[in-house]
Each structure stands twice: as structure tokens, then as C-alpha cells.
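ok so I'm stuck.
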Amino acid sequence: MIFPHDQLRSLTQRIFAAAGCNPEESERVATLLVEANLVGHDSHGVLRIPSYVQWLRAGKVIANQTINVLVDDGPLAVVDGQFGLGQSVGHQSMQLGIEKATQHGVAVVALRNAGHLGRIGDWPLMAARAGFISLHFVNTSGAGMLVAPHGGIERRLSVDPIAASVPVPNGAPLLLDMSAATIAEGKVRVALNKGETVPEGCLIDAVGNPTCEPSVFYGNPPGSILPIAGHKGFGLSMIIEMLAGALTGGSCTNPKHAEQVANGMLSIILDPSRFLPTAEFNPEVSRFVDFVKSSRTTTPTGEVLMPGEPEQRTKAQRLIHGIELDATTCSQIATTCGLLEIDPGFEPPQTEQPSQSQAEINIPGVDSEE
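replied:
not stuck anymore, here's the structure
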């Protein structure tokens, strides 16, 4: 089914309002989830609605939370998200960081115990729109234990996202939004819902054999996601766990915390005007972007795209043509609406009866992480 973005945003807002979120929070969650779909990251979009609502109903994430500032020391802050929705407590954490960077030229904010923070690229973009450079490290304390270490075959690590952004004069910010793993769990779930496979080199089964089948990843015993670039991605993941888990005061991935999603995020925010005059920084950013894009391309019609440009182009298309959702996701959203006694405004398409393994994973919220 194809939905206009404003219709999907309105429905999502109504869902979270019915689930107990106040108007500001329900609007923010809806905006960020639909934005993820608009830019092409369906794994972090409205596919998450059933999980989030189930967590709210089970008390595993709490509506309308305010961050608790535990340490406030000049440019440094440590805050507890108190298991609020990630889109809400993440926004509050970044607001605090931007205020501190405005005052001090630099800020470091350690956020612990946040609900699922969604598309991590939202947070560096928030800083870039305020004129700041930022770098973000994220982990999940236990519910997102999905990745095998290099040389291992059992889950021991989070997907461990890292994101950064640099404002570009007269253009969209440079945006890096990636993880230390070969694929996000949400993308595996999208493939499962669509009845598709994932690319080679992303997954292994429970005994370490390569697989492209999403159902094997969710099997019993489960498979694992692999780190990017072998030992390099594994090394990056270990550092991210230290920064987002240990240093925030939350937790590195720990099976004892597997019952509740709790993201940690370490954010470093920099005001470039404190390092050198804007009249020097901005031209150098523009010069280098232009220089890199001027490279000869591998095909005659090819081009070099900056980090973030593919998302910008996808958004431009989806704003015009709408957001396509697979039948399983539509059905799950409609079921969630039924639980909340609201009208989804659409008739979900018929889906095939799932296998046992698919039925288990399609229970909203059971498996989820980054």
C-alpha cells in the first residue's frame, strides 16, 4: 500500500496519542518515524509502531518522560532518559547539548536508559541545523544483542550505530549514519515481512554458516549479524560499546538486560566558529565537497554522492509519490490500531498465513533493536 506522507504522519500521531503520549510527544514520534520512511530507512520508520506501542502497554517504555540531569558540569552532562520514548528523550538530550555548545563551544552529553532512539541520523542533523558539527555513538544494553564478534558465532554485541554531521554552506549537511554491523536488524525484519532475502555476507546461522534467509536469523537457536569489514567492524563496535555503554553509565551489551530496550548515546557537539572564523571554515568545507564530487566516475552517467545525498533524493521522490509499506507492516499497524480502538483509515491487504518462526518474530516488540 502507498500512503501520502501527511496521512501516515497523522495516523502515527493518533496512534501514539491513543497510547498515552501528550500532543508534543505524539507529534515528535510521528514526525521522526515518518521521516525515516521518507528518506528510505524503512527499518526505522512506521514499521516500529507495533513494537513501541507494545512496550508502552507493557511499561517497558514510558510516555511523556523528562530527562533527569545527573551531572551538569560546564560543557559536560550525564542524563538519564528514564526509559522514555527515544524520540522524546533523545530530543531533550540534544537540546541540552546544543545549549551547552552555544555557551562553551563544545558539549559532551552522555545519555543512558533511553527507549529506542530511532534513526540515529536525526540527532546529528538536529545539531547541524543549529550550525554545529556532532558525533554520536549508540548501543543497546541487552535487548539488542544481535551481532557476533569477529571469529565468533554467538551474539555478543549491539548493532552499534555511529552517526556524524557537518553543516555545509548553501547546501544540505554532510550526514554519516551507519553501524558497525553489516545490516540493521530492522532491515532484516523488512526483508522477512516482504518475503525477501538479505545480501550475502550479512548473516550467519546458529552454527556459523553463512545465510541470506531472515527467518534463520530469527530461528531457535537464532543466527547472528556480522560486523562490517571483519575485524575492523568488530574493533569499532567494541569502542562504541565502551563509549555508549560503559561511559554513559548505562551498560555495554549484557544478557541480564535483555528484557527491556535501553539505548545509550554519547554525543559530542562542536561549534566550528570557536575553532576558526566562519569565513575560513565554510569555504574549506565547500571546496573539499566540490573537489571530491569532481572525480571521474566509474560509468559515463555516474556521479559521486556525498553522505546524506541518497536520502535527500529518496525524500524528494517519496514526498511526491508517497511511502510504500508492505502488506505485513500494514496489517500489524492495523492490528495495533484495533488494540487502541482507533480507525486506521485503511483496509489492510490480505497476507499469507505466516510460518511458526515468522509468527513469532511478527509479534510486535519481541525482538527489536537498532
